[in-house]
Amino acid sequence: MDAEFFHLRYTRAVTLVELLRAAEGVWAQWEEVSQGVEDLEELEAARVRILGRKGSLTQLFSALRDLSPAERAEAGKILNDLKERIESSLVVKREALAKRTREGRLARERYDFSLPGKWRPLGKLHPLTQVRLEIEEIFLRLGFDVASGPETETEYYNFEALNIGPDHPARDEWDSFYLGDKVLLRTHTSPVQIRVMKERQPPVRIICPGRCYRRDNPDATHSPVFHQVELLWVEKGLTFAHLKWVIGEFVRAFFGPGYEMRFSADFFPFTEPSAQVHIRKKGTERWLEIMGAGMVHPRVLEEVGYDPKEVTGFAFGLGIERMAMLRYGIEDIRLFWQNDLRFLSQF
Ligand code: FA5
Fold it and tell me: Domain limits of the chain?
């Protein structure tokens, strides 16, 4: 609608013709302002410009009073029709916009429930960790504590306190990883026996799982880094029979009833007598060594301040890799360290 009309209106009374022409302009104006609206807010602004309190159509209605009663009736009807047309056009546009927003949202937020989910591989415990935890659980049930000690040891704990003399071959710097004078990476978990006994009074009943290091060339059954579980029980009146019972219980719990075990004589400076324990699947030929064991040497008990006439004890050390290889039929120890998922995911 043109500004001319308003100008007219404020200067003099408008005529019917002028008012009707202005009404045509209002429809054109509506079409123009409502055409490009993008959302409901803009549509409302367009509505206010035409139908609001100061809107162009509202102004035309107030101009009716300039006309004679007969003209007013005629023009009033035309303006009402116009208002209705604009209002129904408004309803249509509002609905279309609402639909568009709804569809837009649906399109933006659409989920396709038939698509496969994102695959996030679940991590697992390493087979050596699984076996270690299983061994721990068996001994926890039998009333043992889990103890630990440092992987960096002094010669005193790793050798001397265990009655391993200065000329023992393991002390050679070519057999062990020395980090400095009299400091080395422990070659077994037995030093933890000494550390625990120096701290506690009997009865002592512990196991100690941990990493050990030796200058062994890697092959199918040897690795320079490997794991052992140490066991130590010191109390009044313990005999070799108790040692056999504990190991028997362990073998039954770990391997199941289908295995038998055998003790044979061995030598360790820190146990007397010492034994090697082998197991074999019933009905098969081959015996496999699983651990070294024995009654704690009286000199070791004295070294930690225990009285060997008062208490006795027994100990063993087994290789975790060895246990895992027997359990799962693994032929080569190096598979544990290669981090090949085709191997690891089988456990
Ligand atoms: C010992 O280390 C003794 N401390 C065990 C012991 C403890 C005896 C308490 C008596 C009382 P030995 O050197 O045999 O013993 O090692 C024990 C086990 O560790 C072996 O049977 C084997 O399973 C494992 N082991 C030793 N060296 C390696 C290696 N290089 N790689 C993998 N496993 C190994």
Answer: 2-108, 127-344
